[in-house]
């Protein structure tokens, strides 16, 4: 093997090694940017939710003689389900932020 092909072989080996290191270090980052998980949610009983009573507890305050204060309030729970998308990775860690409004309240 002459010097030219030996140099080409060493260059390709070095590029392959650097490429493997880049994939090992930042492969998840590139994969998440190129193929982000698609998150579709379905709300069960979206119009009413599940109504229940919730006990709210306030920590002991001096003005209440050191006793914790509790009260019951009406609460509504909405159950969210993830709909899997064909060929897309499942979302694992997810945070969902939404605003609740009283009936008749308009959006801001």
Taking the alpha carbons of the first and last residues, their distance comes to 74 Å
Global geometry: elongated
Q: What series of H and E elements makes up the topology?
A: HEEEE
- Class by helix and strand content? alpha+beta
Query: How many helical stretches?
Result: 1
Q: Please describe the biggest sheet, giving its number of strands, its sense, and whether it closes into a barrel.
A: 2 strands, antiparallel
Strand order in the sheet with the most strands: 1-4
As a whole number of angstroms, the C-alpha radius of gyration is 28 Å
**Average pLDDT rating:** 76
The overall strand count is 4
Which spans of ≥5 residues are poorly predicted at pLDDT below 50? Answer: none
What is the helical fraction, as a range of percent? 25-40%
- State which percent range the strand residues make up: 25-35%
What do you see in this structure?
This protein has 1 helix and 4 strands, in the order αββββ. The strands form 2 sheets. The chain has a two-stranded antiparallel ribbon with strand order 1-4. A two-stranded antiparallel sheet has the order 2-3. The longest helix has 32 residues, at 3-34. 30% of the residues lie in helices and 26% in strands. It is elongated and about 90 Å long. It has 108 residues and is of the alpha+beta class. It has one helix at residues 3-34, and strands at 40-44, 50-58, 69-77, 79-83.
């Amino acid at each position: 093997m002459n010097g030219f092909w030996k140099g080409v072989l060493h260059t390709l080996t070095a590029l392959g090694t650097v490429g493997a290191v880049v994939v090992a270090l930042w492969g998840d980052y590139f994969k998440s940017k190129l193929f982000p998980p698609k998150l579709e949610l379905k709300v069960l009983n979206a119009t009413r939710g599940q109504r229940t009573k919730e006990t709210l507890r306030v920590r002991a305050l001096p003005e209440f003689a050191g006793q914790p204060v509790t009260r019951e309030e009406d609460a509504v729970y909405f159950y969210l389900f993830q709909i899997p998308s064909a060929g897309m990775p499942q979302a694992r860690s997810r945070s969902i932020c939404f605003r609740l409004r009283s009936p008749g309240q308009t959006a801001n």
